[in-house]
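Task card 7
Instruction: Convert sequence to structure tokens.
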Amino acid sequence: MFEHNEVNGLPAEDSAGVPLGPPATLLKRWPYARPLVLLHSGRPHPRWARWSLAAEPVGFLTLETDHTWRTRGKLPAPTAALDGRVADLEQDLSALPGFGRIEPASAAMEANQAGGWACVLSYDLGRHFEPAAQLTEDKPVRARDDRGWPRIALAWCPNVMVFDHAQNQWRWRGCPTALAELQASLAQPMTTELEAELEAELEAKPENVQQIGTLESSFAPEDYLNAVERAVAYIGAGDVFQVNLTQRFSASFDGSVRELARGAFTSAEPHYGAMIDLPDGRGVISMSPELLLEVDPRTRQVVTRPIKGTRPGTADPAELEQSEKDCAELTMITDLMRNDLGRVCRLGSVRVPEPRVIEAHPTVLHGVSTVTGVLRDEITMVDLLRATFPGGSITGAPKIRAMQIIDELEPVRRGAYCGSIGWIGADGSARLNIAIRTMMLTGERTLDRWDRLQGVLDYGAGGGIVADSIPEAEYRESLDKAAVLRMAIKAPETAASTVK
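Output:
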């Protein structure tokens, strides 16, 4: 996304002499009075996770549940007119910097076209892109929209700080005055003494301690088993080959979102991590290892990397590699994503350079494929999202029928979970994850601080149901996947956490 010493297609300034440390340290030293976007590659990889990005949003644009746009702060010119009822969603989005036609950045790009959007795209946005996924009147949506999460939440970030993990170096792009002021507030050296002082302060101040209540599921155990049985019945009837079923774990939360994120990133080391402060007492922390979309506007290449098949990190990789069931599931979703990209890519350009590889992450092993293509000249970012969102690995196949079954079986809307979180640059560059292993925080900010929130924490976990799925095994798997949340809460690098 940011290569050849460029950010958004323009030369970036190196940060020589500004000892900021690695990106996760910003979660401690970022000013409390300022919102923060941190897109974090916790386990650097020279190809898939080389860059982390930090920025202060200056404005927000949200698509609310009542299908209205809401604007806050300073936004680029085309955005100001969107405040109010949506007339044509795709037309509105296409007018935003970065969402229109994907073209290589020009050296003469206007200053107001630098930067880009930190994006939180709700899973429920998929119904706007795929109207056929709506259930019919005789089968109403069961899922309650009890959190009221925006279908789209965009944070406009004209000035960005980019960390190159390969070079161990920060780079800057944006207004020199704004960046100089931000640098000045962040540039205090992180000496060992200061690190110890900050840790002691976190332990001493009650406002930095996480208070997290008992985790409760959106499903009673017997209801989840019944939902799996119904999904298997749909598969047996020929409606779908696979459907992804999830349950939501929720708990009360009172504490520092940034400290929670720091612990999460330490324990999970995600390829596509994110911590984004949003207005109206909302925030997200994502520990996702999965890439939905990466777009290079210079070459028009698009990449997706679906995941299917998971084992504990201590397992033998050969066991996952030799699993016919997991291989078949990944092949099915790879074909789905290949077909999705084929809707917007040049004829014959869609390839599968990696049909299946086993990737090791801190706590798990995953089966992953890589699908690439070259976008047609007329394609916009909105066209690409319409063709691919939500990702097939978290719906099932065929996608539209799987989404209908999900709405019928799951008791609550997914919100940001299983949607997508990441970056869309004003130049058409993009890197968006699939928002699995993601915490949604909803409530009220306290102490007049962006990092402090009191409310509820939600975390989804589930898996793909296929013809031979055993309900009890699927239920246990969903509980095992929720262990990532428990690790994040109890990670030793966080402030003191309590789980009632």
